[in-house]
Amino acid sequence: DGRIIQVVRGQITGNNIRNTTQHGSWHKNVSTSDQVCQVSITPKSATSKLLIVATGTWYFITGSVGNHGDAQVRIYDKTSSNEVAFTRYTGYSYTGGHNRDGSTWSLNCLIEADHNGNGTNARTYAVYYYFGGAQTFYYGMQGDSIVVQEISASS
C-alpha cells in the first residue's frame, strides 16, 4: 500500500577529507577518519520496495593544464556483491586553465527488497567512486550520505 515501514541513514559527519591520485579503480566513499558512506538495513518484508538515495561531493586539483578529471558513482550491495545503481559522469572537466573542479551529485534507485535473493536478511549498501584522469581527487566529504526507505508493497 506504499507506506514507509522504516528509514535508515548513513552519513559522513567529520570534516576529514580523503584524497587519492589513484584512478581507474573503485574507491569506497570514506573519510580519513574511516567514516564510511554506507548503511545497513534488515527489511521487514521480502515483498517491500527499497528506495535508496545517496548524495555527495568530490573535487580535484590539478597541477597542469591539459588534463581531465571525472568521477563515476555507484551504490553497491556489499552483502551480495551487486551494483544496484550507477551513473557514468557525476562531473567532468577538462582543465584548460582551471585548477579545481568537481561535482555535487545525487543517485537513487527503487529496488525489490528481495532483489539479491536475501529476502529479509540484513544487507549493507555503500557508495563507491571511480575516478578518471591524472589528478588528485578529494572525497569522503562531511555531509555525504545514503538513505534507505523500506516501502510496503501494494496489495
What is the strand and helix layout of this fold?
Elements: E1 4-11, E2 18-20, E3 26-28, E4 38-41, E5 49-61, E6 68-77, E7 82-94, E8 100-112, E9 123-132, E10 136-139, E11 145-151
Antiparallel strand pairs: 1-11, 2-10, 3-9, 4-9, 5-8, 5-10, 5-11, 6-7, 6-9
Write structural notes for this entry.
- There is one protein chain.
- By secondary structure, this protein is an all-beta fold.
- It is 0% helix and 57% strand.
- It is built from no helices and eleven strands.
- It has strands at 4-11, 18-20, 26-28, 38-41, 49-61, 68-77, 82-94, 100-112, 123-132, 136-139, 145-151.
- Strands 1, 2, 5, 8, 10 and 11 form a six-stranded antiparallel β-sheet that branches.
- A hairpin with a 4-residue loop joins strand 6 and strand 7 (82-94).
- The termini are close together.
